[in-house]
Design brief:
The protein is α+β, with helices and mostly antiparallel strands. Helices cover about 25% and strands about 45% of the residues.
Length: about 140
């Protein structure tokens, strides 16, 4: 297996609990993800809970892990053929009066080069999506 990794951090004026509550509420993630029709969670936001992201063209199954309330969580899924594993980890750290959010995206596959176009798209889009997240979190009614 070979690996790919991308990490990006942003700062929000929102408190860590506010950022945590926002990101762990699947309705917020659904609203912020273009092209996604639904996000389902089969239980509490906790280690081992399964979920799925439903788009027009496919459904992606995933599982929560490394959940530490208010601090971090990871969502890991595999392609239906189990050729590619992707994980999306979030870390929440107090910084000044607000919060530093760090997202780490990791890919693992036998032939990682086959997914370079997908990874390139993630490298371009993740910072934009995180900037949009900060805009949402920094709204006066959210802070």
């Amino acid at each position: 297996m070979t690996n790919w990794e991308f990490k990006h951090s942003v700062y929000t004026r929102a408190k860590r609990k506010t950022a945590w509550d926002f990101l762990t509420d699947m309705s917020n993630q659904l609203r912020m993800e273009p092209g996604i029709e639904d996000i389902e969670l089969d239980g509490p936001f906790a280690n081992g809970t399964n979920g799925r992201t439903i788009a027009k063209t496919h459904t992606q199954e995933w599982q929560l892990s490394e959940v530490i309330e208010g601090q971090q969580f990871t969502i890991t899924g595999q392609t239906p053929e189990q050729e590619l594993s992707l994980s999306f980890s979030w870390e929440f750290e107090d910084e000044g009066a607000g919060t530093r959010l760090t997202q780490t995206i990791k890919g693992s596959a036998a032939d990682i080069s086959a997914y370079q176009e997908i990874f390139h798209g993630m490298e371009e889009n993740a910072p934009k999506q995180m900037a949009r997240l900060v805009e949402e979190l920094d709204q006066p009614d959210t802070i």
